[in-house]
Design brief:
By secondary structure, the chain is of the alpha+beta class. Helix content is 60%, strand content 8%. The two termini are 59 Å apart.
Length: 248
């Protein structure tokens, strides 16, 4: 049966029996002085449900080894934790550039799995530190993981607050635009109510008074009157309330 444990690792049978065909969740195991830490790589926002496990083995003599590498120091474990730090820095840069709801939603989509993985990584390293209390380098890695966990939580909270603020701001702008439509409609209704009676009576009775303009400088009189009517329309339009400019 396939196993995530490298074939060159000489682990106690008690530890080998605790693995299936996959690395499983992030955790720490200890037996006969052998410490095994199972951690996950930084989650990919495009595949939030996929987790790639990495195993780190501390021998009783204090030397370390990582799956996929022949190095015998804790540097690989430290580099694994620092990859989360780099991912948090990239996400923070996205937060600084976010301007719309789509940006904040994308940030939340990336921050949520990063926060969960960072939290579980921190718990696994805390358990390892308690099992091997005298390893000062492991304590330093644990402290760094806890800082990253806090940073990921802040980024997730910032993304949620940014999205809530954007939604609230857009709601306010929609309310102002709706009020503008109401005010403009009210003024137009007043103008319509003012001229409706004379318009209705003129249409009903077919009133066509002799005003002296019928043959006066034809056809220029018609165009002058039309221009005055359009000018009056522009004046009425200018008197209507202006829509609010969207805030940035």
């Amino acid at each position: 049966m396939p196993t995530p444990i490298p074939p060159s690792w000489d682990l106690p049978a008690e530890l080998r029996e605790r693995f299936g065909t996959r690395a499983g969740r992030q955790r720490t195991m200890f037996a006969d002085g052998h410490l095994v830490i199972v951690l996950h790589a930084v989650p990919d926002p495009a595949e939030p449900d996929v987790r790639h496990g990495h195993l780190f083995w501390r021998r009783p003599d204090g030397t370390w080894q990582s799956s996929g590498s022949a190095a015998t120091s804790i540097a690989l474990l430290r580099a694994h934790v620092e990859s989360y730090d780099a991912a948090a820095d990239e996400l923070e840069a996205l937060v600084d550039r976010a301007t719309c709801a789509d940006d904040w939603f994308a940030i939340l989509g990336a921050a949520a799995p990063l926060m969960r993985s960072a939290r579980n990584m921190s718990k696994a390293l805390q358990a390892a530190r308690e099992l091997v209390p005298g390893d000062r380098e492991l304590i330093g890695v644990r402290d760094q993981a806890q800082e990253i966990e806090r940073a990921a939580e802040l980024l997730h909270a910032h993304g949620r607050d940014g999205l809530d603020f954007t939604v609230a701001r857009n709601s306010e702008e929609s309310a102002r635009n709706s009020q503008h439509v109401i005010d403009a409609g009210h003024r137009l209704n007043l103008i319509t109510a003012m001229f409706l009676p004379i318009t209705a009576l003129g249409s009903l009775l077919g009133i066509n008074l002799v005003h002296g303009f019928e043959r006066w400088h034809q056809p220029y009189t018609f165009w002058v009157v039309a221009a005055l009517a359009f000018t009056l329309g522009l004046v009425v339009r200018g008197s209507l309330p202006k829509p609010q400019r969207p805030t940035s």
